[in-house]
Amino acid sequence: MNKAKCNTASKRKFINLPKSKQQSLRHEFATHFEALDTYYDTGELESVEWISVTVFDHWLSLDEAILNLDKARDETRKAYDEKLYTFICLLTSQFEAFLVKKLGRYNEKLTFREFTSKEGRKSTLILSDYRCGERARFSFVIPSLGILYFEGSDFTHHIYFKDVNALETIRPLVDRCKLFLLC
Asked: How far apart, in whole angstroms, are the C-alpha atoms of residue 106 and residue 161?
């Protein structure tokens, strides 16, 4: 029986962090999540800053969005996804990152998961189709940078942070992947 459990556990992409680490991360990122809850309720983001990582060098107008999203060829969409995926893999390989999961019927319990391997991390961070809803998308934290990272739609992801110095650490990786930072 123990052998079966070990084999099952070894196939997992991520595992729960110990309770003490969960509490530490909840405390460290409480302001981030509270600010986002307030933002969803009021439209105002307080206590944290944000920036978006995107394949586009500016915010798209409606006509540009139709052309670059709805009417884009599959090869173009794959190229967009590849750039973002490369960036995420690069970022999470250079800094310790923990997957964020919300549990419970109303997503009221926040938990953090550790990737079990490089392959598990890469397969967990595969991007959702750009037309998928937000609920299916991943998010993770990088404690050393104090950032909360959300996979967004329309080939644009979002980073929430308190210290602007985190951006200076991330910027070379963004440039290396030929992406853009927009706010």
From this structure: 25
Backbone region of residue 107 per phi and psi (left: phi > 0; alpha: psi in -120 to 50; beta: other values): left
User: For residue range 105-164, what is the model confidence (pLDDT) as tens digits?
Assistant: 666 678 899 999 888 888 888 888 877 776 678 889 999 999 999 998 889 999 999 999
Helices (H), 46-177: 62-65, 74-94, 118-124, 165-176
Please name the residues in contact with 53: beta carbons below 8 A apart, sequence gap of 6 or more: 84, 87, 156, 157, 158, 159, 174, 179, 180, 181
Angle at the Cα of 106 from the Cα atoms of 88 and 162, rounded to 5 degrees: 45
- Would you state the torsion angle of the CA atoms of residues 181, 170, 147, 115, taken in this order, to the nearest 10 degrees? 120
pTM: 0.85
Coil, helix or strand for 98? strand
27-32 contacts: CB < 8 A, separation 24 or more? Answer: 28/141, 28/143, 28/146, 29/141, 29/148, 31/162, 32/148, 32/160, 32/162
The span from the CA of 13 to the CA of 122, in Å, is: 9
